[in-house]
Automatic annotation (TrEMBL):
Residues 1-21 are annotated as: Disordered. This is Zinc-binding dehydrogenase. Keywords: NADP. It comes from Nocardia jiangxiensis. InterPro entries: ADH-like_C, ADH-like_N, ER, GroES-like_sf, NAD(P)-bd_dom_sf, Zinc-ADH_QOR/CCCR. SMART domains: PKS_ER. Signal peptide: none annotated. Residues 5-318 form the Enoyl reductase (ER) domain. Pfam families: ADH_N, ADH_zinc_N. Coiled coil: none annotated.
């Protein structure tokens, strides 16, 4: 990527091998997964140095030991588990990322490839997996028997959150933009859902909750807090991790505090969260990430066009 802009700015090219650094490891990549974050990097949101190699997610083989690994894209988290350090960044922001044949990352950002996962599924796991795990487990404390509403079925975060909720023993519901996505979500374990194209979708969703008075937890990756909170039960928790649809919310403050609600902000997780995620995956109860499409690395531009076109259920993966 030599300039910021549209998908056409992603073109194949030759770059130098990653330079050796103490405490860092080079990985021969077998697959790399797309995230909406990559689109923002391409557009210049994070002012990445140019020319630049984007990409946060990947899986491959350590060049020093030959071990099959997945890459945690959460860099320089720091010692405090409650929030990242000022040095925190995402792989592919300023450090060359995974749209490549090789990537070099701190050793703490590597973990064994999950047993039974393909290369594509392994590459698609880290960013959405650790982000969903931190949101649902570390921040919201979702427990077996509780109810969860996921806003926006189909994207990588939503499909991963559905898999984690199912593994945790929670009952998950979704909102979606089409009947087809609702059907896919049900096939993947959702107990039900509503179309968020309907004006009264929060009330429709609330009525679906097991007790009919709203959900214990709502996962909000799009920025519609003022609508989503209407589907919470009294004392419920809403965990916010994105702003793809809206970057500002106009909240009913009085209704919020009388409802005894908790509003929890979250981001990508830490190495500790990643270990928790992989421990849960190792139990065999977490379905692998859904793969919507696979492209050769040389077709990264076309893969971005597909991502931006919407309508996906699952992740897009690049194969070097």
């Amino acid at each position: 990527m030599s300039n910021y802009g549209g998908p056409e700015e992603l073109s194949p090219g030759e770059v130098d091998e990653p330079a050796p650094r103490p405490g860092w490891v080079t990985v021969d990549l077998r697959a790399s997964a797309l995230n909406w974050h990559d689109v923002l990097v391409r557009r210049g949101r994070y002012r990445s140095p140019l020319p630049h190699t984007p990409g946060a997610d990947g899986a491959g083989i350590r060049t020093d030991t030959g071990q099959e690994v997945v890459v945690l894209p959460s860099l320089f988290w720091g010692e405090r588990s409650t929030a990242p350090s000022p040095e925190f960044e995402i792989l592919g922001d300023r450090i060359p990322g995974t749209y490549a044949q090789r990537v070099c990352v701190p050793e703490e950002c590597l973990a064994p490839k999950p047993f039974g996962y393909s290369w594509a599924e392994s590459a698609a796991l880290p960013l959405v997996g650790v982000t969903s795990y931190r949101a649902l487990v570390t921040r919201a404390g979702l427990r077996a028997g509780e109810s969860l509403l996921i806003i926006g079925a189909g994207g990588g975060i939503a499909t991963m959150a559905l898999a984690l909720a199912t593994a945790l023993g929670a009952q998950a519901f979704v909102t979606a933009s089409s009947p087809e996505k609702l059907a896919r979500a049900r096939d993947n374990g959702a107990a039900g859902g509503v179309l968020h194209s309907d004006d009264d979708w929060p009330m429709q969703a609330k009525a679906l909750a097991p007790e009919g008075d709203g959900f214990d937890v709502i996962l909000e990756p799009v920025g519609l807090w003022e609508r989503s909170v209407q589907a919470l039960r009294p004392g419920g928790r809403i965990v916010v991790l994105g702003a793809n649809v809206a970057e500002r919310a106009d909240m009913d403050v009085r209704g919020f505090y009388f409802g005894q609600y908790s509003l929890l902000g979250t981001t990508m997780g830490s190495p500790q969260d990643f270990r928790g995620l992989l421990d849960l995956v190792a139990t065999g109860t977490v379905a692998p990430p859904a793969i919507a499409a696979t492209y050769p690395l040389s077709d990264a531009a076309e893969a971005h066009r597909r991502l931006e076109s919407g309508g996906l259920f699952g992740k897009i993966v690049l194969v070097p």
